């Protein structure tokens, strides 16, 4: 079965998704340019959904009822694999903008499509770029958009949860918006950093209760970060803890 799945992904899934990626990127550019970023976002959602389905990955989402479609959130999840992106785009039942690393914006066609969807890029090696990015994120949130980011800043090499950076929690305090912790399970087994093939493994996305900031003082940022990390950790499978 493993050999058949390997043949399937290289002969069918990867070639098909390459074509689909080009088509979805073009659709995002056209829709985003003509009808606005929200139209572009729906093509990104289809792209993420198709990636998981094309590789025949079982997907389970828990906690959908915790989200209010009229509320803007800051989604904060753990980062196990590139498949985290497909899982969240395709199955998180709420529209959002990504905060993503700048390297992704340099991918031909895909990078411009992300811009048309309203996604925000960040160069962590440049302090001036970080300041500019946070300003963009602040403006997106002011327009009642939700924002999604990986608080660890990079993919895990072991599957274990890393330390959280402060950016998401700073934005939550400035905008007085709730943080929604997300626990992503299974994507590390599917395709960890550095691997060139996909392993068939079930994916599970756990949506936790929103965490509202209580104040705007200096200690609140640390409280939000600690409580969010505890929630993400609680929703992870035992072998990720």
Q: Can you describe this structure?
A:
By secondary structure, the protein is α/β, with parallel strands linked by helices. It is built from nine helices and seven strands; from the N terminus they run ααββαβααβαβαβαβα. 49% of the residues lie in helices and 13% in strands. A seven-stranded mixed β-sheet has the order 1-7-6-2-5-3-4, sandwiched between helices. The chain is globular. The chain starts with a helix and ends in a 7-residue tail after the last helix.
Sequence of strands across the biggest β-sheet: 1-7-6-2-5-3-4
Helix-strand string: HHEEHEHHEHEHEHEH
Structural class: alpha/beta
Separation, N- and C-terminal Cα atoms: 30 Å
**Which term fits the overall shape?**
globular
Which architecture per CATH? 3-Layer(aba) Sandwich
Strand content: 5-15%
> What Rg, in angstroms, do the CA atoms define?
17 Å
Q: Strand tally, please? A: 7
> Biggest sheet, open or closed, and with what strands and sense?
7 strands, mixed
Name of the CATH class: Alpha Beta
Average pLDDT, to the nearest integer?
Answer: 90
How many helices in DSSP terms? 9
Low-confidence stretches: none
What key attributes describe this structure?
241 residues, Glycerol-3-phosphate (1)-acyltransferase, alpha/beta, single chain, globular, seven-stranded mixed beta sheet
Brief synopsis:
With 241 residues, the chain is an alpha/beta fold.
Summarize the SSE layout with pairings.
Blueprint: H1 2-35, H2 37-54, E1 59-62, E2 74-77, H3 83-91, E3 97-101, H4 102-105, H5 110-116, E4 120-122, H6 127-142, E5 147-150, H7 167-175, E6 179-185, H8 187-190, E7 203-207, H9 218-234
Helix pairs in contact: 1-2, 1-5, 2-3, 6-7
């Amino acid at each position: 079965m493993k050999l058949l799945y390997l043949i399937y992904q290289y002969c069918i899934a990867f070639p098909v998704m390459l074509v689909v990626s080009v088509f979805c990127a073009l659709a995002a550019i056209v829709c985003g340019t003509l009808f606005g970023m929200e139209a572009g976002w729906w093509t990104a959602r289809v792209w993420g959904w198709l990636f998981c389905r094309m590789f025949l990955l079982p997907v389970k989402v828990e906690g959908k009822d915790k989200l209010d479609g009229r509320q803007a959130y800051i989604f904060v999840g753990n980062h196990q694999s590139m498949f985290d992106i497909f899982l969240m785009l395709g199955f998180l039942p709420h529209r959002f903008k990504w905060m993503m690393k700048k390297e992704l914006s340099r991918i031909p066609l895909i990078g411009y499509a992300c811009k048309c969807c309203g996604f925000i890029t960040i160069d962590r090696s440049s302090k001036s770029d970080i300041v500019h990015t946070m300003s963009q994120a602040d403006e997106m949130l002011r327009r009642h958009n939700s924002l999604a980011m990986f608080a660890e800043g990079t993919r895990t090499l072991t599957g274990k949860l890393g330390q959280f950076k402060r950016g998401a929690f700073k934005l939550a305090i400035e905008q007085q918006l709730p943080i929604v912790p997300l626990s992503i399970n299974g994507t590390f087994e599917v395709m960890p950093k550095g691997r060139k093939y996909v392993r068939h493994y079930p994916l599970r996305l756990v949506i936790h209760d929103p965490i509202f900031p209580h104040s705007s003082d200096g200690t609140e940022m640390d409280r939000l970060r600690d409580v969010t990390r505890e929630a993400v950790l609680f929703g992870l499978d035992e072998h990720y803890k």
